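Q: Hi! First time doing this. I have a protein sequence and I read that you can turn it into a structure. Is that right? Here it is:
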Amino acid sequence: MTKRKKITVLIISAVALLSAVILSLFFLLPEKYPTDGITIKDTLPDGGGKEATVIILGGQSNASGASLDEYLQKNVTPEKYGEYERGFDNVYINYVSGPKTSDEFVKCGVCQGELDGGFGPELGIADELNELYPDRTFFIIKCAFGGSNLYDQWLSPRSFGKTGSLYKSFASFVNASLEYLESKNYNLKIEAMCWMQGESDALSVDNAEDYAKHLKNLIKDVREEFCDYASDDGIAFVDAYIAANPVYWVHYALVNEAKRTVAELSDMNTVIDTVALGLTCSEEPPENPDLAHYDSLSELKLGATFAEEAIKFFDR
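A: Yes, that's right. Below is the predicted 3D structure, encoded as structure tokens:
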């Protein structure tokens, strides 16, 4: 390696490290999220045996919700924003968005993200589901944490390491939510889990190279953990590429290749090419764009595409 190349590599590594430090200031993971004794407030009416479809949503900040509502308001019609603000009558969500929790199932709508005034893919998911299936009941169970990684915090039991604290919290939260819905007499079927994560793992070549192994194990463990509620064909896993941003996510190409490889292992797996989809992280706020997180319309489109991909597995 030439001296010039060495200097370039050192600069890129330093930028990546600095980016990781800066991002960690915005997303401080809770020291401990309760893994048992979770209580869901009883706010839903009795389901009376009604069939209901469950979508699980997990990952880090582009899943937990760092796209800003103030720009969404400017980019959609007042009528459409009013619909988002009121929430969807047939799509409910119980969420853990980093330190923010709903503690109950509420109508899926705006500002259910981790950042103040933020939203995640859930809004686009709900909009698409409501548009295509207005007479069907949906529950989104979202558990996502900004700045989190797969190699440690989301590490699942099958990876033969110390099971990650966030995986434990995720499993407990989802199970508590499912048990509550069951107690309200809904006939539940989990159709899909949507996963938007990998940026933190892209900061290190070693973690990026291990991503496929850990992701494959995560998918197997998720399907085993929630098998009692799975649809007849099983739980689809809908993944998404991270942004092609080498300034922040130095090894994004390795992580995205891992996602593609894992998606090809099963016809119940799929991955969204967010790069080809044209999702952007470069426009908002206009004076100082947040390059780590999707712009409002891109986040909305990410959610809608998650729903479109999940729907392909409905009633197969």
